[in-house]
Amino acid sequence: MLRATAELLRYTGDGAIKNAFLESFAIHTRALIHFYFPGPSHRTGDLRAAEYCNPETPWPHWSIPDDNKLLREAKTRADKQIAHLTKDRGNNASVGKLWDAHAILAELENLEQQFYQLATPEARAAIWE
Q1: What ranges in the chain are assigned the alpha helix state H?
Q2: Long-range pairs of 64-69 with CB within 8 A, sequence gap ≥ 24
Q3: Rounded mean pLDDT, 76-83
Q4: Global pTM?
């Protein structure tokens, strides 16, 4: 769904349909960021990439690296603009702006490749086959 909405955002004009695609993209982005970088606020029952990796080759990420501004901002924006009602949401004209869907998608695809390399054979079979 993340790939599909990133592509649809490229070709969709303004309005409700674009906003729906943007919300879908942001929700999926946020879910994957929480999966790859659970951080200290993860809840019992939340899925984490680390759970699907071999102990000999553990998942190396706990939180978004400080130098990864793209994913840090994407998570903050998804938290503030999509997932919660907040005063920090921004005005309607700015909500769709600055979402670089293709750069975010590329970053998440890099993490997916890392995850694939470290995942157990059972996890690979369950997720990709």
Answers
A1: 2-11, 16-36, 69-77, 92-95, 101-118, 121-128
A2: 64/33, 64/37, 64/39, 68/107
A3: 84
A4: 0.86
